[in-house]
Amino acid sequence: MASKKAHHATGWAAGVIAGALVAHAGAAGPYFCWSILSLFAGLLGGTAPDWLELAWWSRSRRLWITHRTLTHWGVAWIFLLAFSYLALGHEPWAPLLFGFSAGGVMHLLADWPNPLGVPWIFGRHSLKWWRSGRFDLIVVVSSWLAAMCVSDFVFLNNVHNLKAISLMKSLPLWTWKTV
């Protein structure tokens, strides 16, 4: 599990991605209001798999469900993301649900490298790269790089992405030939 701060930071990145994709789908609305709302929904969704486990109706606020079970199920979050993306431009609730589910998927991606893993289809899967709370910087930087690439694609016509790829191809590492 990534730290609470890492989930907030990756939730912001998911919100930026969602807002850009809502605008790209033509569902941004007047003054990009739906894109902005999907950004905040992404932030909320970035922490949702954890706070959805809390029993808000009880005074003790204990977990009503075991951690990383139903609320961390990858298939449900990906289905919600795809369903809301297909509804963009047709339903008024779609940008909010798209941002929320993008944050949820980003949360699962941030939790995936740790040994506890997340339930994707039937069983729990882990990349087993590091323990909880370690290397949060890698997760946060990766999510923000993805947000910058998506935003560059949507708003700036891939100008910076193509320049970065061109720079990477010019590095000596890419010109090595295997014999």
Automatic annotation (TrEMBL):
GO terms for molecular function: hydrolase activity. InterPro entries: YdjM-like. Keywords: Hydrolase, Membrane, Transmembrane, Transmembrane helix. The chain crosses the membrane at residues 35-57, 69-87, 135-156. It comes from the Bacteria. Pfam families: YdjM. This is Metal-dependent hydrolase. It comes from Undibacterium piscinae.
